[in-house]
Design a protein that fits this description.
heterodimer; A: mainly alpha; two-stranded antiparallel ribbon; two-stranded antiparallel sheet; 19 helices; B: mainly beta; five-stranded mixed beta sheet; globular
Amino acid sequence: MKAIFSKTLVIFSVIVISSCDDYLEPEPISFISQEFFFADDDDLDVGILNIYDGLQGDNDQQIVDFRSTQIEYMLTEMRSDNARARGGGDATSDFQQFEVYEVNTNNIIVQNYYESMYNVIFRANLILDNLDAATEERRGAFEGEAKFVRAYVYFQLVRLFGPVPMPLRVISPDDDAAIAFTRVATDVVYAQIIEDLQVAVENLDNQFKTRASKAAAQALLAKVYLTLAADGQMALYEEARLLCDEIITSGEYELMNDYGEIFTIEKNDEIIFAIDYIENNELTSQNFSWETSDLGDRRLNYTTENIRSVWDVREETVRDVRLASIIDGQFMNTKYSTNNPTGPLQSGNDWIVLRYADVLLMYVEAVLAGGSVTNNATAISYYDAVRSRAGFLLPSLSITKAELLEERRMELSFENQRLFDLIRFNEAINVLSAHADATGGQFQNTDLLLPIPQNERNLSGDFNMPQNPGY
Amino acid sequence: MKKNLPRFKILRIAIGSLIVLFGLTGLTPDLQAQNQVITGTVVSEDGEALPGVAIRVQNTTTGTVTDVDGKFSIEIVEEDAALVFSYVGFKPQIILVSGRTNLNITLEEDITQLSEVVVIGYGTQKKSHLTGAISKVTNENLEQLPFARVDDALVGQVSGVQISSTSEEGVGSDPTILVRGVGSINGGSGPLLVIDGAPVDSEFFGNIDMNDIESFEILKDAASAAIFGSRGANGVIMITTKEGKEGGVKFTYNGFAGYQEGYKSEYFQTSINDHVAFELANNEFVSDGTRIKQLLGDTDWEDIVIDGGYVTSHSLSARGGSQRTKYSTSLSYLHDEGVLLIDDFKKYNFKARVDTKVSDKFSLGFNINPSYTKRRRYTDALRQMVRQSAPWLPERHTARTLQFVNSDDFPDLQVGDYVWQSHFDDVTVRDVFFDDNGNIAGFNEFESGSISNTGNAGPLQRILERETIDERLKVYGNVKANYKINDDFSLKSNITVTFQDLLQTVYRGTESTNFAGDALARERNQSRLRFVENLFVNYSKDFLGHEIDAVLGVAGEQEIDRTTEFEGNGFTNDDIPRIEGATNIFLREGYTRERRLISFIGRVNYAFKDRYLASVSVRRDGSSIFGSNTKYGNFPAFSLGWRVSEEGFLSGSSVLSNLKIRASYGVTGNDNVNLPIPVQEFYPYLPILRSEPTAVEGGTAQTFNPINIANNNLRWERSIEINPGIDFGLFDNRINGSIEYYRRTSDDLLLDVPVSSTTGFTTSFLNIGEVRNEGIEVNFKTFNMNRSNFKWSTNFIASTNENTLTDFGDADGTVFTPSDGSDRNTEWIASVGNPISNFYGFVYESDVPIEFRARPFEIIGSKSQEVYVKDLNGDGIINDDDRTILGNAYPEFIWSITNEFTIGRFDVSFMFQGSHGAETRNIADLEGFSLSLGANATTAEAPRSEFLRPRVLTSDIIQDASFVALRNLNIGYTLPGNILEQFKIQSARVYASASNLLYFHADNFTGWNPESIRQGGDFTPITYGYNRGGSPIVRKVVLGVNINF
């Protein structure tokens, strides 16, 4: 009998011992656990791509998944005098509120964009938190790429929402409510953006066009400086000029001869940074090319009468991107006409964030330095390079601030620049009030910022996250 | 890079333990001493021989059972031995041998069955010693109820257990089972199913054959269920299968066949004539469109879709055995055609079980049970059919209907083609009229205009041209070994392997919609392998009035699921209606997931003098589902009982024959995690990176996408329950029953909670909130008559349940808007102090006057889409603040009453069952028959239009879901023995069985089934009670025969 008891005891104890750790942690095979993932450069390589994946957003006809860049035009271009919905302004439609400046605090596009952008920041922070896995020679590049994207996203957020929460590492919903719901002052956000971009400039080279590069970081930093300079930090105009000059004199970028080809030939010599899409795959494509055409459900980003009249007056031929819809004769814009006519829901047109013409015009803006006119020869030569491609061959004698603003409008229409240009040139209130008056909108000065999504404020509990004025 | 883990260590060890036990048997001498043989016969009071009576020499392990003729033979060592005779349903007897060699015993029937033994999880216990809430359902005639699934047959059998046919997909669908209310907000509210001691997945309810089942035991209170630890929180249903009995081979055939029909609702029975009358009454003329509809005919679509069906079942078993080895094998087939147009369910089942005593100390058992089911689902809710059809719409085109088709738009239609409403749009029909002389006097022209209300394909093709077929192969295999160490100790070990292969094929044909390019095929292949290993030591001792029964053991469990799914399209014909026929595969998904459980289990049941009872148990579970901080959980339980009637002061009472007071306390858990991404359910705490392509530099590269936030503190949902109760018997147990109260508090509920998006995500899976279920359960059984030729007993059970959300953290007051795929997104609210799920919306005030309805005849019964609602807060405007709680779908009171009569050779039993207090949000008839646009269609805006809200959001569609049904009626006749003997048949019974012959629902209910509830997708226990028509109540009558030979 004793033998039996002892054998039983052995069996029991073996089972008990075997129950430790490993047994209760079966290794998943169908996915990777992030906790153990970042071990070396290869892992970080894959992780870095995921940041861009976030920036690309999900191709979804609903506004449910993280749409990211794919819906950005609604928050920017459609709040400018360039764009409208085919159905016109409508305070009761989340898609048509923007053009009449009656954006609701529950607007699902605003909420989705806010959520998507923080998802991108999370992805960037995830890499930055795991940089210790990198080898010394790769570490800088990883850091530079992640910080470039993080800076880009915060730059978009701070311009659209004003002070925003600023997590700089992966945060937890339980322990980091203070970070999640504290709106950080804009100068602190800008300081972080500048710091991040400086790291990117130092660590990156120019091998990529749809990933971060040195030139992309320089161009973005130049734009940040111009933004702050316009807000009073005059010394930054010169900093911006130097950055533009560095890109221009590097000789790595040049204007395309054919304006239309900027948008049809991807990763061309003019592109400094674009967001990549590949057609015919739900997971890599975009649908804004579909949604902004008469194929789409909602038919957004149509041209306004305002911009069409400017094209007409200026006799723009090259940069007039209107196209009459076959449905009702209203005018779409063709800048991002789908590159996949047989499956427009899965379009592959890249979204251009920074291109060489923008840098040339930023140089001019830096030279103008808030003044009303310049006759700086270098500035004029860059300005004329952009103009002559558009068919305006007559050399300029000087450039006024108003001319530069309109030139930027013509060159960069429907590229989500107009609203920010107006603000930077301190013309937003004048131009947009006039535009609203003409189109039945309700513009107030406070409409330059979007509302913080009500959902975030509801979740903020005791932190009682403040709303922007006017909402 | 990856560690190669000892995946099946537990399994290997358990197999090893079995081998060791085998080895031990060789060492054990089979002791036999000088013996004396006692023989005899055991009969009942009626003088009928009782086969299978257990006979044991008291205080030894020696025993035998009676054979078919009630005869036995047993060897005893000591002349003064006492023999214990016991048989289920009879009072046990202890007989002193006193030197006799022949004993004729008459056993007395025990109507109270206090001696009955109940399976309690890792052991058994005398029913009279139970201190928790365990209900036993013995399979007496359940196999003669015409149900496709065994859980359907349990309806109304157990107090506190609510089984509702909520499904929309026709025959073979799993019902929703709630034991004492809903205690989880995450969806995992069903009880744990255990077959012969091994936890299995609940789909076995659909695969196991009722003919193989000996009994069900339902562990309701937490003290009883705590022995199943982290999975006991929603109760446990244990199934014990039949084993062979000693004696010659005994064959049993049970078969039935019959017909069934679906319940039809008068609210959908309409004719084109009704509409003509309606138009005449309101307009005083009949519109052109309606005249054309009149020409097309009058089709009863409800009759076409709810088409009835046959049901057939055959089961043959052979059972028998010697003193050492018993066997049981069975084969069965069931075919249930359901009551809907395409639903169908077939089940094939095979089972073989052998139990053998290798020696007096060592016994072994093997059990294998493969089964196969094939089920065709009805994939559209009934509401969809009604929405798409209209009484004037013919099923298929005939030469007559083709005359009225718009041949410009539809030039190629032929006789036999499916009919769409839009086929008849914009046609002109010329009607000749004659003068008094019979000559053509002229023509009337009727313009149909746009008489369709949908451009979709016809309703018939939406049903017939789509198929979803589930083929499920399940195998249950079990090996067990018992070793008796000595009189007190025994060792038990068993291993159970269950395997499932599910192949689900979906095909939507080229004619299933109005666009052939919509055709698609989907295939889902899932395999599930689960191992359960137990090793237990049992200690059992009776001394000086003390009875101790203790068990200590370990259990391990592993489950591996593999799923692949493909979806493809590009069909131009229906010749290969499977994924193989697709020319474009656009979805490929799959996952492998694994979970493991290790448990340490201990329990002591104690009784002193048969009257003072106590039970203590504890289980410690380690689960792979939760993170390192929370992998282990403890689940203690204790209970006490006092059999007052055994005390001296009550003995001899002529009124009170049995009285027991008991109370229990226990803690259980629920690890049933439901998440939108299935692979995540087994690793909910891990931050998951999923492989995804991303565009980069003009190409596509693999990246890993984070989909959630890590939560290492995620833990089990926990339930704590108290359960006091009284068991009683009156008048020599002619009346007996029990009354008990339960109060279960479940906290740490698992919920996907909204979080700040600055975390990178909008929700996070957290433990939050608390819900309480409390109620009273009563059971009464009375033996109204107990004569040998006339017996009548009545069984009444009833239970109440009150469900209250007592804490919901920051999410208190959250309004949920589940999407059903249309724009009818109704609202629910989770609000502390109310049930876990509440219909939310506006309070209906009145309808829009008919003159202001844009399409006055479109909606069934001329209901308008919008109605006036009440301004609840009286602020003069209708806004979100005027919404309120409108009801919930949880019944407050459920009951059943069963009467059983035996009159000579006839037996009759019937059960009424009822449910009260639940509401249903019935949208089935919201958009009914599209009769006409109406000649007086108006665009005039109704007055006070700011007080209008869509009807779907109001109390107008909240209906009373109460019902009373004659669930079962069973009439049998046992053939007299003298006829049967000629055919070598031992016994035979013919029977007729019916379900739902009577069904009463509330007056204001307008659907087909008040129990139907849409579940899955967005619909969770928080958003419970959405009724889209569902599958109708089934009325079924079968004739059957049960033969033993």
